[in-house]
Design a protein that fits this description.
single chain, about 550 residues, alpha/beta, flat
Length: about 550
């Protein structure tokens, strides 16, 4: 065992996140961490890496254990190059380098200093740090960041910084790695390399992710919900099966508790009605008072039990028998409600027609693109990072940046087009959430009332407390939900998605896939989520010899 976690209480402002969160991590174990957006997954990692000490509980780590974690903030990086940033985050690298440099500056080292230097050199060699520069460059090249090693780290984009964090983790040679959403900016090839590394890595890995391709390769899944941690041995398919069984059992137990509460209330009412008419003697306690007190004690304990969160994936829910399915419909946890128009009457009109298109900047980087996109169609743009996927979509939509060098694009002039982007517009950052929703509607020329804003927030699982939160302080999942709200401010005929499953939790991803399946319009998308691609389907436009 490398880590044991027992957290009895952790709150974030008025919100209590954890009340009984306990789990252990074994040597070399690969564990996926899942849970609804805002449930506290990143907070848990902050506790584990020591950056958050405001909690009640205990962490037990094996003596001599080294741990490395992906960073969320990049302050005080100064003029460090990317290679220097990565090496500074490797366990013992800075300490060993400093010891060796200090020794080499000595004119007459003592025998003790020679011994310490020799030990540092041996340890530096054992960790493979003499060749770390070459290793960093090869790893960055695999993520198509071959030019980033010598660039100032602060000049990298958000996605490039995240990929550099993954390189740091992969080269850390630690006992435990904490990895938060590693594949959000990875293309299909980079993700495959990360999964291959994860499968073969000797260290234990605790990874927050809702990427089902990654979850399909873990040894165990820990779900954070209802203030605790629930463990499911096996991979994603095993988790779905076990979750269905566990949820059915939990619903049965919950109903038993509810029936017991109703019975106790009846017993209390009956005892109260009879205690005044008891004709016993003063030396004996009124038995109806005894019954009332006993029932009240038990009732108080049962009323303190909060309703568990019940969620079963749609495929498993469809396999439930009638009684369990009816019970699940009654008790299931709320999910987001995506208001896409259904597909009862598709006209099949052409929305986008592309013929022999060549696009680029100074010169064409993509050419020979042909496709038709009609109502009810889905079309995937597939390619590695840098192949020009986003460039192609911008050119098709007539957005600033790329140029069209040849061919033509015809778009139905009456088609309403909405675009989902990975990043929230910075103009919204300092607005409170309700004001941001008002603004995205206003920017699209759609009137909206305060009552409608409240309804939208409720549909997308934002709470009353979220009304006082600025957009910049929302979690990644909450920002993703805000992006969907913005995209659907008008009733679109064409949806354009760029990695829509990044940051969304599993129930929200499933709801998005379900909404798209019944959508009457067309969908043009980029995604490296194989589960999402298989669900949405459609034709594929492949760039730069990308495999089909």
């Amino acid at each position: 065992m490398v880590l044991s976690v027992e957290i009895s209480e952790k709150s974030f402002g008025p919100k209590t996140l954890f009340t009984h969160l306990n789990f252990t991590i074994g040597d070399g174990e690969k564990v996926g961490v899942v849970g609804r957006n805002g449930i506290g997954k990143t907070t848990l990692f902050n506790i584990l890496d020591g950056s958050d000490k405001d909690y009640s509980g205990d962490l037990a780590m094996r003596r001599g254990m080294t741990m490395v974690a992906t960073s969320q903030e990049y302050h005080d990086v100064g003029e460090q190059t990317t290679a220097e940033y990565i090496t500074s985050g490797l366990p013992e690298f800075t300490e060993l380098s400093q010891k060796m440099a200090e020794f080499e500056a000595l004119e007459n080292p003592s025998s003790r200093q020679v011994k310490e230097y020799s030990a540092a050199v041996e340890r530096f060699s054992d960790k493979g740090y003499y060749f770390i520069g070459d290793k960093i460059r090869r790893a960055l090249e695999a993520f198509q960041l071959e030019q980033a090693a010598d660039r100032p780290f602060k000049t990298l984009s958000g996605g490039e910084k995240r990929l550099s964090e993954i390189v740091k983790i992969m080269l850390s040679d630690s006992h435990l790695a904490l990895v938060d959403e590693p594949t959000n900016y990875m293309d299909y090839a980079a993700k495959a390399q990360f999964i291959e590394w994860m499968n073969g890595a000797p260290e234990a890995i605790l990874v927050i992710t809702h990427d089902r391709d990654v979850l399909a390769n873990v040894d165990r899944i820990i779900e954070i919900k209802d203030g605790g941690a629930f463990s499911y041995p096996g991979n994603y398919a095993d988790y779905l099966a076990q979750n269905s069984t566990r949820t059915v059992t939990s619903m049965n137990e919950y109903e038993i508790v509810q029936r017991r509460i109703e019975n106790l209330k009846k017993q209390i009412a009956a005892a109260r009605s009879k205690k005044a008419g008891w004709g016993g003697t003063a030396d004996k306690k009124n038995p109806f008072v005894v019954i009332e007190e006993r029932c009240n004690r038990e009732l108080k304990k049962l009323l303190e039990i909060e309703k568990p969160s019940f969620w079963i994936d749609k495929s498993s829910a469809a396999d439930l028998d009638y009684k369990h399915a009816a019970r699940y419909e009654k008790y299931k946890a709320r999910n987001i409600k995506i208001g896409l128009s259904a597909a009862e009457s598709r006209s099949r009109r052409s929305l986008v027609a592309v013929r022999d298109l060549a696009v680029g900047y100074e010169a064409p980087i993509i050419s020979g693109i042909d496709f038709d996109l009609r109502e009810g169609d889905a079309l995937e743009i597939r390619g590695r990072n840098g192949a020009g996927k986003t460039t192609l979509i911008k050119a098709i939509l007539g957005l600033p940046g790329p140029r069209i060098f040849g061919g033509e694009v015809k778009i139905d002039p009456h088609a309403k087009i909405s675009v989902y982007e990975q990043e929230v517009n910075s103009s919204l950052f300092d607005l409170l959430l309700p004001d941001a929703i008002m603004k995205v509607y206003d920017d699209r020329g759609v009137n909206i009332t305060e009552q409608k804003v409240r309804s939208i927030m409720d549909n997308y699982l934002f709470t009353e407390a979220d009304r006082n939160v600025k957009v910049r302080d929302l979690s990644g999942g909450q920002k993703a939900r805000l992006q969907i709200i913005a995209m659907l401010a008008v009733e679109p005929d064409l949806l354009v998605f760029d990695e829509p499953t990044s940051h969304l939790d599993l129930p929200s991803i499933e709801e998005l896939e379900t909404a798209l399946a019944r959508y009457k319009g067309a969908c043009l998308y980029i995604s490296h989520d194989n589960y999402f691609r298989n669900k949405v389907g459609g034709a594929v436009v492949s760039l730069s010899n990308t495999p089909q």
